[in-house]
Amino acid sequence: MTSTSHTCSPAEGPAPGDRALSPPLRLRQSLRHRVASHAQNYARVSPTVLRICVGLVFAWFGVLKFIPGASAAEGFATGAMTEMTMGLIPAPACLLLLAVLETGIGLALLTGFLIRWALAAFFLHMAGVFLSLLVLPDAAWNTAGVPTLEGQYVIKNIVLVAACLHLAAGELTP
What we know:
mainly alpha, two-stranded antiparallel ribbon, 7 helices, disordered N terminus
């Protein structure tokens, strides 16, 4: 007659019926199981949560541009857009266009309506946003590699780009 013994590593968890584990180890494994369960549930809704969060940020910042002086990026954004349009669109009209565009993108992401159009508009908008780092170098950079507050405001958008790339991938895959 042969006897088999089961030893488990901490990563494997306890063998069924193994009551020799200390209470802290059992508690830790129980907690790990509960957290993993919640993580699986969240994974199903995370694209929606991400879409709504990006939409909220965009709608919020867009609405601020409708209120004179409310947006911290107002001067930098209108200056960059005026420069990019070679002065053909005056600063107040640039601000209004940006407000409408950002609010529209935000509302589309919030509601889930016209997502593909909103994402296309988002990526075009981001191209212009990042172009502002080159168009207004004196306002965007203190020295090479050291952005001003406005430059930092632009650079942080790389996180929004990554989030929307994830959303776009989900929209474009079956």
